[in-house]
């Protein structure tokens, strides 16, 4: 009788605990991405240099804060190069801090938990005044809208009976650099 009760309670409790653990992983990942975005904005303001945060760079599930090699009005070809997140080409930490030999402020490559992935994403560019911009096919890049632009991270897991569950968290950044996280079920 007690063994049966333990089995029933376990059958009910296990999925609840698993769901809680997965929500915590997603929440932690979003806080890490949010922190990296804040640091990119702070670097742009304190160093008077435009900074970008690139997602799925160099590969899916990774992201990196990089210093603009050109400037906001005239990007250098390397700013948009596919290898811009490569630590072999652009090491972290930089070899020197001489502004004439940029980039000097690139951060390390960050990785999402392997069970998580970014949705469709776009690079964010922070200017020295703290404003946030996105590529709209123009140079300089367009200011993010007042309502913000959304970046998502999703987690898909397979539960009992092969049922698939997807949890999504959305991070919104607006033109003045305000960041909000919203976790959905």
Description:
It is a single chain. By secondary structure, the protein is of the alpha+beta class. The protein has a single domain, classed as 3-Layer(bab) Sandwich (minor pseudopilin epsh fold), CATH 3.55.40.10. The protein has a six-stranded antiparallel sheet with strand order 3-2-1-5-6-7, with helices on one face. A four-stranded antiparallel sheet has the order 4-8-9-10, covered by helices on one side. The mean pLDDT is 86.
Rounded Rg = 20 Å
Give the rounded overall mean pLDDT: 86
CATH structural architecture: 3-Layer(bab) Sandwich
- What form results from the Cα inertia axes? elongated
Q: What is the number of helical segments per DSSP (H or I, 4+ residues)?
A: 1
DSSP summary, beta strand count: 10
Q: Domains counted in the coordinates: how many?
A: 1
Q: Report strand %.
A: 25-35%
**Unreliable stretches, pLDDT < 50, 5 or more residues?**
none
> What class, by secondary structure content?
alpha+beta
What is the helix/strand order? HEEEEEEEEEE
CATH top level? Alpha Beta
Instruction: Output the CATH topology.
Output: minor pseudopilin epsh fold
Roughly what percent helix? 10-25%
* Alpha carbon gap, first and last residue: 35 Å
The largest sheet, given as strand count, sense and whether it forms a barrel, is: 6 strands, antiparallel
Strand order of the largest sheet: 3-2-1-5-6-7
Q: CATH H level: which superfamily?
A: minor pseudopilin epsh domain
């Amino acid at each position: 009788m007690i063994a049966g009760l333990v089995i029933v309670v376990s059958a009910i409790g296990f999925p609840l605990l698993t769901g809680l653990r997965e929500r915590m992983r997603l929440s932690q990942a979003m806080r890490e991405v949010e922190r990296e975005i804040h640091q990119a904005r702070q670097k742009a303001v304190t160093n008077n240099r435009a900074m970008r945060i690139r997602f799925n760079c160099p590969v899916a599930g990774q992201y990196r804060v990089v210093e603009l090699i050109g400037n906001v009005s005239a990007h250098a070809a390397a700013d948009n190069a596919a290898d811009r997140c490569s630590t072999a080409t652009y090491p972290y930490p930089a070899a020197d801090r001489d502004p004439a030999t940029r980039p000097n402020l690139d951060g390390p490559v960050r990785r999402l938990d392997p069970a998580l992935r970014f949705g469709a994403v776009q690079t964010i560019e922070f200017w020295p005044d703290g404003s946030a911009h996105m590529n709209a096919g123009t140079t300089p890049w367009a200011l993010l809208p007042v309502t913000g632009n959304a970046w998502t991270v999703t987690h898909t897991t397979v539960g009992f009976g092969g049922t698939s569950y997807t949890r999504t968290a959305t991070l919104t950044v607006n033109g003045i650099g305000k960041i909000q996280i919203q976790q959905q079920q």
